[in-house]
Design goal:
Number of helices: 11
CATH architecture of the largest domain: Up-down Bundle
CATH topology of the largest domain: ABC transporter transmembrane region fold
Order of helices and strands: HHHHHHHHHHH
Strand content: under 5%
CATH superfamily of the largest domain: ABC transporter type 1, transmembrane domain
Helix content: over 70%
Number of domains: 2
Distance between the termini: 28 Å
Largest sheet: none
Shape: elongated
Length: 289
């Protein structure tokens, strides 16, 4: 429940930004381009290409190139607006957080090292900016694109659409398993980077005392331990990502092989067309992406 309340608070802050609706509009437009392209490929393969109509084939080729350029322009606008929106929000959050830290009482401040407060104010808000710009703001467009994909797949061929959806639980289970592992690993990374920042802050503030006591070796050993723990935590994150992407690629290939096998059999029986088969192979890859 705590995570959902944080998401709702961020949504309320996003709604206060002027660029929110412009960014949402561009994200929505961009979400319709990807599902539309395989449908156009299907038409071109089944009609102008199959019929040998070269003028129509050239016309549709020009249309596809124009749509690709238009899609690129929409994506550029989407990136500019979402990044600007995220930075505007993070600027406000960082100012509010610093104001909150200044109002904290001394006993509360003594419970947290300086590096932890530094990490929460700068590093964590920087991470949040990347999440807002690259994930949170685009999730509405991804949901729309997924719904559009499912609808178009059933319109093109309901049998192949059902076959594609049958592999969906495997992808969801794989994604959920790795998301939990990666989230826990990132929590450890945040913990150790906060401890490292706090330790460095304390050492730099008392460097004269450190030199007079000759504690360099002790402090170096402690820093090496924190640095090692931080390195191991981040290496664990990298390891999970190195397993996650091949696992999802394997799920995608299983679904694609199933679609091609059944679609090839239907093509042999004359119950589908080559254009549908090509379109579904593209839909299937977009679906699991």
């Amino acid at each position: 429940m705590k995570n959902y309340s944080i998401v709702l608070r961020l949504l309320r802050l996003l709604l206060e930004e002027r660029l929110f609706w412009a960014a949402l509009t561009l994200v929505t437009l961009a979400s319709f381009f990807q599902p539309l392209r395989p449908l156009l490929y299907q038409y071109v393969i089944d009609h102008p290409l199959r019929e040998g109509n070269l003028p129509a084939l050239g016309l549709w080729g020009a249309i596809l190139v124009g749509l690709a350029f238009l899609h690129a322009l929409v994506l550029r606008g989407q990136t500019l607006t979402t990044q600007t929106l995220a930075w505007n929000l993070i600027q406000r959050l960082r100012a509010r957080l610093f104001e909150k830290v200044l109002r904290l009482e001394i006993p509360v401040l003594e419970k947290y090292p300086t590096g932890i407060l530094y990490t929460r104010t700068l590093t964590d808000t920087q991470t949040l900016q990347g999440t807002l710009a690259e994930t949170f703001l685009v999730i509405a467009g991804e949901i729309l694109q997924l719904l559009c994909l499912i609808a178009l797949m059933f319109v093109v061929d309901a049998r192949l659409a059902v076959l594609t959806l049958l592999t969906m639980p495997l992808g969801l289970l794989t994604s959920r398993y790795f998301s939990r592992k990666i989230r826990a690993s990132f929590d450890r990374v945040r913990l150790y980077i906060g401890r490292t920042n706090g330790f460095l802050q304390e050492v730099l503030q008392s460097r004269e005392l450190t030199a007079s006591l000759g504690a360099e070796k002790t402090l170096w050993a402690r820093f090496s331990r924190l640095n090692r723990l931080y390195y191991l935590s981040y290496r664990r994150v990298i390891g999970y990502f190195a397993l996650f992407f091949p696992a999802m690629e394997l799920v995608t290939l299983i679904g694609l092989a199933s679609v091609l096998l059944v679609g090839g059999y239907l093509l042999y029986l004359g119950e589908t067309t080559l254009g549908r088969l090509v379109a579904f192979s593209l839909y299937q890859q977009l679906f699991f992406r």
